[in-house]
Amino acid sequence: MSGPPAKKQRFQNKKKFYQPSKKQYLEVGHKGFLATCNFNEKDCVRECYNILNQYADELYGEESCEELKANDQVQEDAKTEQPESDDIADALQKQIDATQQKAKQTKRRFQVVDTGATNCVFIKTTLADPTAMTKHIVKDIAETKKQKTRYLLRLLPVEIVCKANNKDIVDSAGQLCDKYFLNEPTTFSIVFNKRFNNDISRDTLIKELADIIHAKNVKHKVDLKYAKKSLIVEVIKGLCCLSVAEDYMGMKKYNLVELGRHNADYDGKSDKLPSKESNEDKKEVEEKSGSDTKVDNIKESCDETKDECENKN
Q1: With contact defined as beta carbons under 8 Å apart, do 95 and 75 qualify?
Q2: What is the pTM of this model?
Q3: What whole-number distance in Å separates Cα of residue 149 and Cα of residue 143?
Q4: Neighbouring residues of 36: CB distance < 8 A, sequence distance ≥ 6
Q5: Using CA of residue 56, residue 57, residue 60, residue 65, what is the dihedral sign?
Q6: How far is it, in rounded angstroms, from Cα 290 to Cα 91?
Q7: Which tens digits make up the pLDDT trace of 261-272?
Q8: Residues in domain THUMP (predicted)?
Q9: Nearest-5° angle of CA 201, CA 203, CA 206?
């Protein structure tokens, strides 16, 4: 006897349609914010949007309503358009091209961009100066002593994105040096990090960048611990992010979690643990009080002896 007939697989002839990815990737010419996290990129992106929108509304006002309504207008136009020709495929292609062009014209204030590296998020922005906004965020957290992020660790401004080769990096760094290191003498440092790139030599690049800074003003001095200005070089695969940060080491390397945690621990310890000076003062007070009580006891004993002698006489 033959076995039961094999069951036919469902959806055997189902067509597979290719859906293009909606991700945007880091490109040359972008500017924004570079954020780092620990294996929670989605939560990090959410916190980036929250904190950036909060401070951007305080500094520059709320985002314009025209940009927010642009996406709704694109969908309405796509629905109202009807195919004029008999060929349905051509009509659909025209609608797709029209929606893509309108979508490119709409730009949000902050937009996440894929860097291709793990635990590294880039937020593209339309703001003119991301460095000023990052400086304001770091100072506010340091002054208010409130921890506002959990997954977002470090938030760095990025003014220039160029290709990861020595020539482009030196040329782009020269533009930043003209902006920050041209006038008054100051102390500086160079912070270099690279991810998924072995073509760039760290030592040679740092020497070339230091020569450029000294060429702008000979009185500039290197200070690796307490530099007033730090040239940040972040290499990610084939691209390089450049910026200049003020008081980078003093502000815990722009680590928002460390800033809030350091201040919170300091306040808690200062309230709970007494200082050494207070303990010494207490000891001195106790010793003085003990000595005073001894003197009073001696005086009382002398008075008693005098009274006894007078009574005998």
Answers
A1: no
A2: 0.68
A3: 15
A4: 119, 120, 121, 153, 154
A5: positive
A6: 101
A7: 865 444 444 334
A8: 140-246
A9: 105
